[in-house]
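Minutes, project huddle
Topic: does the predicted pose make sense with calcium ion bound?
PN asked that the exact inputs be recorded in the minutes so nobody has to dig through chat later. Recorded below.
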Amino acid sequence: MPVRPALSPAIVTAVLLVAVVFLAPVVGQPPAARPGLRKPAMTDTIRATVYADNWFVLYVNGEQVAVDSIAFLPHNVVAVDILPAYPMTIAVMARDNFDPQTGMEYANSQIGDGGLVLAFGDGTVTDGSWKARCVSRGPVGGDTTAPRVESEPIPADWFAAGFDDSSWPAAKEYTEEEIGPKQPYYDADFAGAKFIWSDDLKLDNVVLFRKRVAAPPDGRERTDFRGLNDVVPEGGPRRPGGGPGGGRRGGQRPPAGPGGADR
Ligand SMILES: [Ca+2]
Ligand SMILES: [Ca+2]
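Predicted holo structure (tokens), as shared on screen:
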């Protein structure tokens, strides 16, 4: 019988602990040493809830995190889990339903209206502090006899965290009565959130929104997990996948129990 290495899980764990305690302050030093490199859990996420008349795409910190799964009708609520990091830049493109040639809807029989409301589990809500820039409107001037659409190019990086939106107008708040949301809105929790759009709820058909959230509105401390892929998380890396040599230290097995697996 071959003799297995005599390192018990307990000893390996002890060695790792010693290494962490004595080496971490030296190796991990510098100024911006980030506390807590544990892996994020679902309890670190917040729920993002959005209702758009009629459609939206949502970006958080430059990454696309949600797309409305229904382009037109019925009016629906989309709720997804997101991992927040602050300051948090939220960017939304919302579209009213409209014919790209006329700006009207239902076979050019009427002018539809838009509307967006959003609430995050950290207390972030839509309101007049958001920026809103209309990039497509129609029928221009409300003219339904010779209807036409007016659009402008969308900046390539409009959703990026570093995009300069200082010249964008403030979003305008609208009441529930003005929007006339459908039942899914009432079935969700949008407490504290306001409906927003650009200046013309009916003629503005494509609107870009941006909001920078400096810190969690609910005041809760949250870990910043950005760059997690660039560090070794607490508990060590995942067990190597069985290649020649087995990975670390000549193929020793990582300690059993918590820490070895990709939790
Ligand atoms: Ca419209
Ligand atoms: Ca609409």
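Observations noted during the meeting:
- The pocket of calcium ion (ligand 1) is lined by residues 96, 98, 111-114, 202-203, 205 (CB under 6 Å).
- The chain is about 10% helix and 25% strand.
No decisions taken; revisit at the next huddle.
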